[in-house]
Design a protein that fits this description.
Elements: H1 2-5, H2 16-32, H3 41-60, H4 65-77, H5 81-94, H6 99-111, H7 118-132, H8 135-147, H9 149-159, H10 164-184
Helix pairs in contact: 2-3, 2-4, 3-4, 4-5, 4-6, 5-7, 6-7, 7-8, 7-9, 8-9, 8-10
Length: 193
């Protein structure tokens, strides 16, 4: 809760490990708050501390893609839409092939898709293509395709631009995700799903 972090200044040490740990903690905390919790000043203050720490990190190390992502996440949670878009684009520019960061960027962009501008949508498509082009990434994208109807048109447009073997891999993963979801769903009354 916000009170637990209220006195924390999320100080960033001199080592890259220290910066990484602070940014990972901030990312987890920022996305952990519900919209309802963010109505209260203590929670907003914690998110703003993380936003400011991320800004300090990227000022010292502008190539830190994850810190740019933390800045984007904290900015959107504080409804600083312009800062969100700029930071998300900078995260993609500084870490275009970092799949673990791209996965988080995709999640953030999709969750706040209505707030992304045209330039951010373009970098988002680049991240989608990266994930759809990798064995591990295509599984993540396929699961989202199955579970999020609003995502389907966006990813379909991206996948259609990929080589045929990547398209087949995507379709195969969509089918597998559908089977997994179907088998995990509780049986409806009468045994029918």
């Amino acid at each position: 809760n916000a009170e637990a972090y209220a006195s924390e200044d999320f100080g960033v040490g001199l080592s890259s490990y220290s910066r990484e740990m602070v940014m990972k903690n901030c990312f987890r905390i920022v996305l952990g708050y519900t919209d309802l919790q963010l109505l209260y000043e203590p929670a907003r203050n914690v998110v703003d501390k993380c936003r400011l720490r991320a800004a300090e990190v990227v000022e010292r190390t502008p190539s830190d893609s994850f810190a740019w992502l933390v800045r984007a996440a904290s900015s959107i949670r504080l409804v600083k839409v312009g800062e969100f878009n700029a930071a998300l684009r900078n995260s993609q520019r500084t870490g275009p092939n970092e799949q673990w960061i791209a996965r988080e960027r995709i999640e953030l962009a999709e969750n706040f898709y209505g707030r992304t501008d045209a330039a951010t949508k373009a970098t988002h498509e680049t991240d989608l293509a990266l994930m759809a082009s990798s064995y591990r990434g295509v599984k993540v994208i396929a699961r989202r395709y199955v579970s999020d109807p609003n995502f389907r048109a966006r990813i379909t447009a991206v996948v259609e631009m990929l080589p045929a073997e990547r398209q087949r891999l995507f379709v195969g993963n969509v089918k597998k995700a559908m089977r997994e979801i179907k088998s995990a769903a509780p049986a409806a009354e009468g045994g029918n799903i």
